[in-house]
Design brief:
By secondary structure, the protein is of the alpha/beta class. The chain has 9 helices and 7 strands; from the N terminus they run H-H-H-H-E-H-E-H-E-H-E-H-E-H-E-E. The protein has a 7-stranded mixed β-sheet with strand order 3-2-1-4-5-7-6, with helices on both faces. Helix 4 runs parallel beside helix 5. The structure holds S-adenosylmethionine (SAM).
């Protein structure tokens, strides 16, 4: 489990409840364990395990054919999503950090799922308007200052009944706190604004769940 995960979720759900739920998950394979250790050591944020379990269950249950991940980092979620897809389905992933892209390519080539993953290199704000596919599921996990701009573009790329799955909407507990450390003030305001737009978006039926660091779950009408 990444350090980020523990820190994020502990303020929202009791630590013993998290530990209990984590104890029910199956063991990771070697590559996933290596990626978790790498991310933890190098302070690269990855999706926490309970949110990931939710995302993978959703992917399977919706029989997703096209999924887009916005913010791939080292490919931790991407590889695991690819692992639950049907043979004809693909995960497309956008990443702008050259360093993370190199790491992701290295891990993906070790994963055996390379043929199920399509990578777009660059800023999602520039790439999203060029995409032609309509997606069953979009997983938004990028810089928080980009969330608001990405919201409408993502909704436009969803199929009817497609799901927008967004991480970090409780932002380590800060979005609901009355006092926010100065280091987090700007990002917290950005996420609070995003949350209001997300919950009242005319094309979405939305909810925010206290899973992990707060998961936004919006279904396109
Ligand atoms: C939280 S990490 C993603 C973790 C990944 N989803 C996972 O669960 O393994 C966020 C990543 O998004 C990338 N990112 C942030 N804003 C972006 C943008 N506008 N376009 C493309 N990538 C972006 C960052 O470089 C970083 O690697």
């Amino acid at each position: 489990m990444s350090g980020k995960t523990k820190e994020s979720v502990n303020r929202i759900v009791k630590p013993n409840q998290i530990d209990y739920l984590l104890s029910l998950l199956n063991e990771d394979d070697e590559l996933i364990f290596e990626m978790e250790s790498f991310a933890h050591k190098n302070k690269i944020p990855i999706l926490d395990k309970l949110s990931l379990q939710f995302l993978l269950t959703l992917t399977k249950s919706k029989q997703v054919e096209n999924i887009l991940e916005i913010g791939m980092a080292i490919g931790y979620s991407t590889i695991q999503i690819a692992g639950v897809l049907s043979p004809s389905a693909k995960v497309e992933a956008i990443e702008k950090s050259e360093n993370n892209l190199q790491l992701a390519e290295k891990f993906i080539s070790k994963s055996g799922s390379k043929n199920k993953i399509v990578i777009y290199k660059g800023d999602a704000l520039h790439i999203l308007p060029t995409l032609q596919t309509k997606y069953d599921l979009i997983f938004l996990d990028a810089d928080k200052e980009d969330y608001e701009s990405i919201l409408n573009q993502s909704v436009g790329l969803l199929k009817s009944n497609g799901v927008l799955f967004v991480d970090n909407l409780l932002w380590h507990g800060h979005t609901a706190a009355s006092r926010v450390p100065s280091k987090y003030k700007k990002s917290t305001e950005q996420i609070r604004k995003f949350n209001r737009l997300f919950m009242s978006h005319p094309e979405l039926s939305s909810t925010i769940l206290t899973v992990g660091d707060g998961i936004g779950f919006g279904v396109k009408k």
